[in-house]
Amino acid sequence: MKHTPDILLVTGAAGFIGSNFVHYWMNAYPDSKIIVLDALTYAGNKENLVSLEQNKSFTFVHADILDTDKVEFLLREYNVDTLVHFAAESHVDRSIHGPDAFFKTNIEGTHSLLKAAKKVWLDEGKTNHRFHHVSTDEVYGTLTPDAPAFTETNQYLPNSPYAASKASSDHIVRSYHHTYGLNTTISNCSNNYGPYQFPEKLIPLVIANCLDGKALPIYGDGQQIRDWLFVDDHNRGIDLIIRNGQIDNTYNIGGNNEWANIDIVTLICELMDEYHPAGAPHKQLITYVKDRPGHDRRYAINASKIMNELGYAPQETFETGIRKTVQWYMDHEQWWRRIMDGSYTNWLDKNYE
């Protein structure tokens, strides 16, 4: 069932992937109307969207996805036909220290959006609609070194509060299609990287610490393996799913790009030696710290379904994507320094003690 989006509501639009999606969509479809909603918690930064504020097709709303009445109002007021749901607590380490916020936002928040969509779209007879839910490969659990990559039929085996909260939200989205007939799709992506990523995540943290000559903390032996996906390749995949994906289907979006954490850090150190030679060799900053509880050993995405059915293919190689990312953080130092306040520094100290 093809869907032609006209007016979008994007949740979590001031966060890392959400803001990149908004920029991607506005560039690709300048005639589309887009309403963006964000609660502006620690990881949401309105500055990510400042260049769009004068665009008449863009509307920013400061609100929480738990405010069901507000979401209903927005869906009805703007005649929204497509809801793209990014809003989530998303950092595994923070979920270990404080899981309550993850269950509230990721489970209750997703249900709040679904209730609003059901009321406005189904109860009021709007058949032309799409609810797209953005999820993670972490719902599938962990892989042994030689195991085949995750497919959409893998059993859900989440190992962290974050992953469990996302797995729960996936099931709730699916239930709203099967029980009520809501037009839903789900995507499960691998690790994203690129501009606007909050510097608690591995790649921006390493870049920032290299520039400041600080230790580069590596959990355990650093041999945890992840599949890395440039953020705009992720957004291209979501675009294809929204327009051409089958309702009640899940699509894995991956980069076909598995790297061990220590190899990622070593590569960034080599790039920083090139971009910032004053601190070279940056590899000497690598510091091994105690592994985090329940740390999954390997994630890998089999993206053959979206490739074969929808013609998806990543456009960035890891070499081009990581260079773009390092250069972006070098060029936007004021952006990430403004958000690294005292509370963030205290959290880093606690997490990597």
Structural notes for this entry:
The chain has 353 residues and is of the alpha/beta class. It has a domain at 7-193 and 230-254 and 298-316: NAD(P)-binding Rossmann-like Domain (Rossmann fold, 3-Layer(aba) Sandwich), CATH 3.40.50. Helix content is 42%, strand content 16%. It has 12 helices and 12 strands. The chain has helices at 16-28, 68-77, 92-97, 100-122, 161-180, 202-212, 231-244, 261-275, 304-310, 318-331, 333-339, 342-351, and strands at residues 7-11, 33-38, 58-62, 82-85, 130-136, 184-189, 191-193, 216-219, 225-230, 249-253, 258-260, 286-289. The N and C termini lie far apart (51 Å). The mean pLDDT is 93.
Tertiary shape = globular
What is the percent of helical residues? 40-55%
Low-confidence stretches: none
Q: What's the CATH class label of the domain at 7-193 and 230-254 and 298-316?
A: Alpha Beta
Task: Quote the CATH topology of the domain at 7-193 and 230-254 and 298-316.
Answer: Rossmann fold
Task: Write down how many β-strands occur, each being a DSSP E stretch of 2 or more residues.
Answer: 12
- Portion in strands: 15-25%
Give the structural class: alpha/beta
Span between termini: 51 Å
CATH architecture of the domain at 7-193 and 230-254 and 298-316: 3-Layer(aba) Sandwich
Which sheet architecture does the biggest sheet show? 7 strands, parallel
Could you spell the SSE succession in H and E letters? Answer: EHEEHEHHEHEEHEEHEEHEHHHH
The strands making up the biggest β-sheet line up spatially as: 3-2-1-4-5-6-10
Compute the gyration radius: what is it?
Answer: 20 Å
Could you tell me the mean pLDDT?
A: 93
Query: Any idea what the CATH superfamily of the domain at 7-193 and 230-254 and 298-316 is called?
Result: NAD(P)-binding Rossmann-like Domain
What is the oligomeric state here? single chain
